[in-house]
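Continuing the series of single-chain predictions for the mutant panel. This is the parent chain; the variants come on the following pages.
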Amino acid sequence: MPELPLDPTTALDPDAGSISIGIVGAGQFSRSFATLWDRHPNVSRIAITDLLPERAEALAERYQHVSVMASFEEMLASDLDAVAIFTQRWTHAPLVLAALEAGKHVYSAVPMATELTDIEAIIAAVERTGLTYMMGETSYYNPATVFLRQKIAEGALGRVFYSEGDYVHDMDLGFYDAYAYSGGENWRATASYPPMLYPTHAIGGVLGALPARAVSVSCIGVEDQRGDGVFDREISQFNNSFSNATALFELSDGGAMRTNEMRRVGYPSRIRESRFRFFGTEASFEQLAHQSVWHDKESSRDISPDFIPLRGADDGELADVAPALREAFTSGSAPVHDRGRLPASYADAPNGHEGSHHFLADDFVRGVVTGQHPPVHAWRAAHFTAPGIVAHASALAGGERLTIPDFGDGPRS
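Parent structure:
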């Protein structure tokens, strides 16, 4: 199966075919994608399931042609073409593997997996079945990543020898509410999820622009000091007490990448939760909360307007979403995005995460309909996920430098 172009330039033909999608997990995040797939001209029907049936029913009631299924198992036994998994982070890999074995194409929220062996198993299943797998990484479509992908391809930065990707999302800014919503009475046990096992919003924004992968890492984990029962080893389901972590990666092109994953940080993540820096021999790029700056050897230019997402549509669907998270779910596209390749029906549709949701939803449908790999296919998902898994192991080992396995680049033709 050939890989899709990194940046398709035309909308998918509505007559190219249609697919049916089952949504697994009816939480706060999945409803944005239910709306987008409901509007997509190449999606014929949608079904929803959740461990809490009332949530699936409430989400289905928002649409005219969406049904509810009693269980994930019923969904796998049905004639649905694909499933989209929006469940707890550590549950993704087993559900993905079950879906692939059942003959379903798969869209998975991040991360791809929490164990290297599961990454290997998912890639093997995709190779064996020929089915479409896509990880829904928002940062691949982040305005900065879109811009830098093009600039790096043009050679405008020269050799990029150092890059950074930060995910700065404080627990106080929505995470407590999100974990309580999804975790039930014992939510503190899961709110301690290790920061480096959720690395793709930072790593994906860098490696989504650079034609390289991470080959080794040394990571320092910062012990939490809040004392509120979160990031407490005695309570944690993951035996984790790190609330922040910093990793330095060696890249396959000889350069270096630094990543910060922060859950206790005085930073306005509602404005920009993922931010990036790229330093090349000829030019550089830097971001802060409100600024994006291009430097060369003669001057420095503020190019922030190209990266500021226009306000997205909000038709009231997210009224009950935690206020600190709502901003991420309603931001629109930025000027650097090419909206000409999207369905016309998305023009006034709710968007999110700096304009990425429309592209995520469309690329999955495009991949299944055409039989081609979407941009964040299984091998690229491994490039974005595995470095964080090894980084967490490094932090547990006191910063020991560890090798990151190479899962390959996938088929090219």
